[in-house]
Amino acid sequence: MNPDRYLRTFYILNLLVSHKEGLRLTEIKDALKLPVSSVHNVLQTMVSAEVVVVNEDLRYSIGPRTVSLALRTVQSLDVRTLARRPLQDLARDIGDDVYLGVRSGRRVVYADRILGTQRISLDIRLGEPLYMHSTATGKLFAANDEKMEALAMTLAMPKLTANTITDPAELAQEYARIRAMGYAKSLEESAAGIVGYAFPIRDAEGEMTAAVHVSVLASQATRAHERKLLSDAQACAEHIERLLGHIREGSNSTSGKSGNSSSKRNTMLKAAPAAKTSKAVKSPSRPVTKV
Questions:
Q1: Pair 195, 186: CB distance under 8 Å
Q2: Measured distance CA(156)–CA(127) in Å, rounded
Q3: How many other C-beta atoms can be found within 10 angstroms of the C-beta atom of residue 63?
């Protein structure tokens, strides 16, 4: 079978998913800008396989076999497994420690960690609750969920470093900045000498389900490094999102082309303030991080 025929099957499914009432042949043809004969032939094959169904009004919609496959696929998705390779690539490219942050009930935890080439003496345990007033990942989750933000305002806000935000009004402003920037930054707010960055990962429904977190020595958090980190980490988050079935607004899902996403990322992500002089030092050997 011609490869284009396979691709047209996916284009049609992607189109029908957005139209629960179904579409007629001419509507599908016009939306995809394909010859009516080609679309008709593909649709007949899809109907015979129950990939799509057609009603008495000659409207095509998603069929039972597609629904069954989609449900089994969603059930098999594990964000930790899917994110592992992209996180490894990110840690290799930028040299910093990379974490996967996830929500666990009303708390936020790190579910995975990839060590970079920078030697940071920092003991971060997987599975332990993160502060939502000081860590980049904790702040990111709270800023993107009204209930978590309300909860964060009621929790204790210990002063972990000189930069830790402990005033609820100031924290609310910080959450607003995070929503505006599209990512979160912890400027030595949880640990002196460490700058953290967190980027949202959204699932197929567009809900934030996880986060890419990067820990950087403040002495290494130059503007040049931050620019590369912002671009690479956002690309990593978007890669994981695609694996989860999330298609970002503006992507060309009909034609199957990814488009130039790097330029869009550069305009969406606003640079945050540069880190202050670091109090942290590189350790001569990397300690074993407790899990």
A1: yes
A2: 20
A3: 18
Tally of structural domains, the chain: 2
In-domain check, residue 107: yes
What phi and psi, each to the nearest 5 degrees, are found at residue 190?
-105, -35
How far apart are the C-alpha atoms of 221 and 99, rounded to whole Å?
A: 17
∠ CA 282-285-287, rounded to 5° = 100
Cβ distance 138 to 124 under 8 Å? no
How far is Cα 134 from Cα 157, in angstroms, rounded to an integer? 8
Record the pTM. Answer: 0.65
Q: What are the tens digits of pLDDT across the range 102-157?
A: 988 788 988 889 888 876 666 677 878 899 999 999 999 999 999 999 999 999 99
| DSSP H/E element including 138 | helix 136-143
Boundary-marking domain end, from 75, 109, 124? 75
Q: Could you tell me if 70 and 187 lie in one domain?
A: no
CATH number at residue 28: 1.10.10.10
pLDDT tens sequence across 12-31: 998 998 888 999 999 999 99
Task: Let me know whether 89 and 52 are in one domain.
Answer: no
